[in-house]
Structures are given as C-alpha cells and as structure tokens.
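Contributing new complexes? Match this layout with zinc ion.
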Amino acid sequence: MSSQNSSRIHPNDPLWSKALTLHKKAIVIDTHSDLPMRMLDDNVDISKRRDKGHQDIPRMLEGGLDTQFLAIYISNEYAGNSAMKRAIEMVEPVFAALDQHAESIELATSPSDICRLKKEGKIAAVLALEGGHALEGSLLALKLFYRIGFRYMTLTHIRHNDLSDSSTDEPKHNGLSDLGKEMVREMNRLGMMVDVSHISDAAFWDVLKTSSAPVLATHSSAREIASLPRNMSDEMIQAMAERGGVIQLCFGSAFLHPAWAERGKEVFRRINESKSGALDLWSKIWAELNESDPLPQPQIDDLIAHIDHVVKLVGVDHVGLGSDYDGVDYVPEGLDDVSMLPNITFALCKKGYSDAAIEKILGGNLLRLWQEVEKTAALKHS
Ligand SMILES: [Zn+2]
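Output block (do not edit by hand):
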C-alpha cells in the first residue's frame, strides 16, 4: 500500500495547509504500537521505510508523530514460561535502535522529555509493558522496569493472568487479584501509568477503586459504536474521565466499525476455543474470515465518530490516539500507516473542532494525564 501523500484524502482542500500547520505545531502522541515485537521477531530495521507494516522512522517523521509509546507486548502464552526473559529480549533491540539512530529518536521518560524532544525535532520513544505476567509476580521487577524507562503497564492481554481478568477470557479473579491491586498501588507510587485496555469490566472497576492516580486506556475505542468487549462502555469512559483519565482510541477496524466488531467477537470466540494466547492465530482467523466474506474497509470518519462520541459524552479533555499500529492487521482507509496521521487533524478541522481542542486530542490530554500521574508519585529516584 502506498504511504505517499497520494493516500491523503483532500490535499487540494484549502483547509489542508491549515491542518498541516496545526499538526506540526501540536505535540502528536500515539500511546500504542507493537513495533518492538516486529523488531525482535521480524528483524525490522526502523530506520528504513518498509513497504509492509505501519511504522518506521521515515514514516513517523512524514506523519508528524512526536511521541510513540512502544509496547513490549508479551503474549499470554509466555505466562509462567520465561515471560520476563521474553520482555528483556524484546526491549534490547529497541535500545539498540535508539543508540543507532540517536539523531532522530530518543528515549523519553517524562512529559518534560516529550516537550524537549519536540523542540529538538526528534521522535520521543516511551517504553510500555503490555502484559503484567512479564513481571512474574515481582513488585521489584516492576520497579526495575520503571527504572529502565517503562511508563505504563497494560495489566494483561487476551487472557487472564496473575494480576487481572481479561475482557476476552473467562474470569479467574472476578476483577483484579490481590497481587494486581498491589501492583496498581506500586505503579501509583512509582509514577507509572495504569493502562486499562484489555482488562475485564470488573477489573476496570477494581482499578478505579484502587488507583490513586488517573488511569488511561492506551488502545481501546467506544463500545457504544463498536461492541467489542475490548472497547469501553459509556459508563466506563465517564467514570475514567471523572477521575481525569483518557481513552486513547485504537485504529483497528474491529475497534471502530460495528460490522467489524461483530467479526472481532467471532475471532475471539474461535481463539478461546483454541485455548491459545498467540497473536498469529488472531491474524490467521481474521484472514480466513475476511477472505470468505470481505467487509467494506472502514473510513477515517469511523475514527472521527468515536472522537465525537467521547467528546459528546465527557468533553474534549479525555480522548486521544492509541493506534495499535503494527499490532492490528486492518485499519481504515486514510490511516493506512503512521505517515497519514495528518488526515486526522484535517478531518477534525473539517468538523469544526477548535485548534485548542485538536491539540488536546492529538496529545495534550495524554501529557496532562501523565503530569498528574507524576505529581501523585511518591518515588522520585530513590
Ligand atoms: Zn493490545
């Protein structure tokens, strides 16, 4: 798929240059990408433009992306089976790439790093742990991951683990486990953001009761529109927003479009039958279903509909972007890869969102949340 400007929607519209100017000025933050898994498993060299996948440095720069949270994603199949080793193996190629390409990308561990790197014209890379089973039950490991630079943790993935139930698996703890609650309190103490994407609804409410800091969903969308259990109900979005939290919308077609969400539920049903935690199975089942009965590709307006929905529900201070690029296989037309992020800004301008509102959605809300989490943290660098 072309990743040149030709895929942009309305380059001749006079609003396009205004949108591009605003996009360049804003701090653009994406809270979820699975690029590290591609770096480890597929030897992806992020300095080179690929014709596959969604992200690399050239396309990030072209898309005006300022900050990318990089998920160290640990499949549930590693739980109890070298999960921490898998995390260490995945984070090393990220550090190696940061060393090698220091002129264009740098590790960020605070909101002030994000602002500094924006001024320097470099991409800020923030580490994130997806799958709390990688800690193998150790609070000390959580602290060490924080010290390495990890700034949020997704408590589990598509299956329950020792910390939490999952939105796509049978409950084991009826929410968070006692260890899960302890981890959330320790994350608050450290200043690590708590990600409620993937966890069950009961676990979500446990997190809200347990966390002294606002929380975020790093890659989920609105269940009211796309009824995937991975998405958040209006009640959840409202409760999270009341406490200063943010929903960072996922670009995966199943997260955005009603018909795709129905198919997503069928994919999860088949994965559950197989008892596997593996992502490659997810891709295989999706490909089979889409081949036998293709669905129309969602459009960028399907993402904008989720933004509108959240804004109507809780205002403009609680929504942002969490693409899940290089983790999902199907994305809307016009968001085919990271180079196309300005299309979102254009679509929001077209809809009449103010410049200030657009800057919040593109990254301002996430920065505010992170600053809050830092403020409530007890541990500085002791
Ligand atoms: Zn995920």
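Reviewers usually confirm one structural detail per submission. For this one: The first strand starts at residue 29 and ends at 33.
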